[in-house]
Amino acid sequence: MRLPFFVYGTLRPGEPNHGLFLSGRTRTEEPGRLTGAVLYDGPGYPYAVEEPGGAVRGDLVTARTRDYDELLAALDRLEEYVPGDPRSLYERVEREVVREADGAAVRAWVYVAAPAVAARLRARGRRIEGGDWLTRS
């Protein structure tokens, strides 16, 4: 399934990994919101942790068709995600994301904290209030 990606940290426009991974490979990039998750500082990079009542701000990115497969593989490597590997830092999951412009719900790939990482963050991580990596203090 060729879903758009929801990015909420270093892949957002203006952040370091946007230019390295997304620049020139996207068709659209638009603000969005993932509900049912909160944001933690990694440190150095963020983790979305699934949690009812929370919301994470980010961008919904639609890849150009010809770049999709290569981009998906590159993002999996960046996020250290290997399907089925318990050592993965993130899991790539399909979730509903709300487009800010029109409130429409869109299915997208989201990299969320893997279970072991999420448990550590809930126990002693630093939560980013407001759920926006760009306004963290």
From TrEMBL:
Pfam families membership: GGACT
Gene3D superfamilies in UniProt: Gamma-glutamyl cyclotransferase-like
Originating species: Streptomyces cadmiisoli
CDD domains: GGCT_like
Claim: Transferase is one of the keywords in the record: yes
Keywords associated with the record: Transferase
InterPro entries: AIG2-like_dom, GGCT-like, GGCT-like_sf
Domain spans labelled Gamma-glutamylcyclotransferase AIG2-like: 5-134
Record's protein name: Gamma-glutamylcyclotransferase
GO MF annotation: an example: transferase activity
